[in-house]
């Protein structure tokens, strides 16, 4: 028996498109399904200024295959030298939707990120004034903090003080992985939102470590205990508009994932919506999928939902997703949930 679910076309509020040959390979995987995406700026060198964001946006649109519609929403990478006036101009002209805070050293290509949070205070104040959201990679980088605690400690030591010191600053806690993060969002007002990835709704830390190390399940923030995965599923399927989809689809060539010092990132652009349909159905919450994937994100960013729709279909046959996609930079493994999925 087939069943179908038609929803507004979704958007991806946290995506890595990279650049050059890799971008050409992964862009269609997203644009096929998603109307818009918040495009993360952690290129080498990073996308810091409004002019760099405009140039990157042009490269994305040039790489978009004929006949596909997709609107990349650009993000500026916050450095200690970022000029508040450049940020304000890029926002006013529509070229930049948000600013991204990476604590220096927290994740892939974050070396130019922030060490001394006082130095970015003028930028944050300007953003609060103009209503421009701050997207955060919420992990501290202190060597003495256990990697599984880095998100919770970031909330206490960095995020909460920043929010208290900057009234009106709108913040998206990106790719949350803990019950503490979901609780922090719930305890505050609509100035705070959070993205949740597809893979963090599916894997816990056992998937990475039991029965041999699985590099394609390694991402940052690293997946936590099962109780945290369950807290994320509860948040995503709750209908609470402060939680929305950001896949954090983060392609790396297999050669650099299957490596003595493997890169962090799961590539989920290809199969995200079928996997989410599976997760939401298992939680008896298919009726909440449209809100999570297509409505809550635009509402947070003050945009209208997409006009068009997508239709998900469930059949009796497990869907055969490609194991890898080819890129000019080498093959990239598509996230494997580890169970059969009947949605496509
Ligand atoms: N999530 C990841 O594990 N990796 C991302 C960076 C990020 O979002 O932290 C990447 O750019 O590869
Ligand atoms: Zn991140
Ligand atoms: Zn990311």
From TrEMBL:
EC number: 3.5.2.3
Catalytic activity: (S)-dihydroorotate + H2O = N-carbamoyl-L-aspartate + H(+)
Entry-linked PROSITE patterns: DIHYDROOROTASE_1 (PS00482), DIHYDROOROTASE_2 (PS00483)
GO MF, one example: dihydroorotase activity
Occurrences of domain Amidohydrolase-related (ranges): 12-305
Positions annotated to bind Zn(2+) 2: 100, 137, 175
Pathway the protein takes part in: Pyrimidine metabolism; UMP biosynthesis via de novo pathway; (S)-dihydroorotate from bicarbonate: step 3/3
Cofactors that this protein relies on: Zn(2+)
Positions contributing to substrate binding: 16-18, 42, 137, 220, 252, 264
One Gene Ontology biological process: 'de novo' UMP biosynthetic process
Key words, A-Z: Hydrolase, Metal-binding, Pyrimidine biosynthesis, Zinc
Pfam families: Amidohydro_1
Cofactor, how bound (note): Binds 2 Zn(2+) ions per subunit.
Superkingdom classification of source: Bacteria
Amino acids binding Zn(2+) 1: 14, 16, 100, 248
Residues bearing the modification N6-carboxylysine: 100
The name this protein goes by in its record: Dihydroorotase
Top EC class for this record: hydrolase
Coiled-coil parts of chain: none
Sequence similarity: Belongs to the metallo-dependent hydrolases superfamily. DHOase family. Class II DHOase subfamily.
Active-site feature positions: 248
């Amino acid at each position: 028996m087939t069943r179908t679910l038609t929803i507004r076309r979704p958007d991806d509020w946290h995506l890595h498109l990279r650049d050059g040959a890799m971008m050409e390979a992964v862009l269609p995987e997203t644009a096929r399904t998603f109307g818009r995406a918040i495009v993360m700026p952690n290129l080498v060198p990073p996308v810091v200024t409004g002019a760099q964001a405009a140039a990157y946006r042009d490269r994305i649109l040039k790489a978009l295959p004929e006949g596909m519609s997709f609107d990349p929403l650009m993000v500026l990478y916050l450095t200690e030298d970022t000029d508040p006036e450049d940020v304000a101009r890029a926002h006013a002209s529509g070229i930049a939707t948000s600013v991204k805070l990476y604590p220096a050293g927290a994740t892939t290509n974050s070396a130019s990120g922030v060490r001394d949070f006082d130095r970015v205070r003028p930028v944050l104040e300007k953003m609060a004034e103009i209503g421009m959201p701050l997207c955060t990679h919420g992990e501290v980088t202190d060597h003495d903090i256990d990697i599984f605690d880095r998100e919770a400690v970031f909330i206490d030591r960095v995020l909460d003080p920043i929010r208290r010191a900057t009234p009106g600053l709108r913040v998206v806690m990106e790719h949350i992985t803990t019950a503490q993060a979901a609780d922090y969002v719930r305890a505050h007002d609509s100035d705070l939102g959070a993205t949740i990835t597809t893979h963090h709704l599916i894997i816990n830390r056992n998937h990475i470590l039991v029965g041999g190390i699985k590099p394609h399940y390694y991402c940052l923030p690293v997946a936590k205990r099962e109780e945290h995965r369950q807290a994320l599923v509860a948040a995503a399927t709750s209908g609470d508009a402060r939680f929305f989809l950001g896949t954090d689809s983060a392609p790396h060539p297999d050669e650099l994932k299957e490596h003595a010092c493997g890169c962090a990132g799961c590539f989920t652009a290809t199969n995200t919506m079928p996997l989410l349909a599976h997760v939401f159905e298992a939680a008896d919450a298919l009726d909440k999928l449209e809100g999570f994937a297509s409505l809550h994100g635009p509402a947070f960013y003050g945009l209208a939902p997409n006009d068009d729709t997508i239709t998900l279909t469930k059949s009796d046959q497990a869907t055969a997703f490609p194991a890898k996609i080819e890129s000019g930079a080498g093959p990239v493994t598509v996230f494997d949930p580890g169970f059969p999925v009947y949605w496509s």
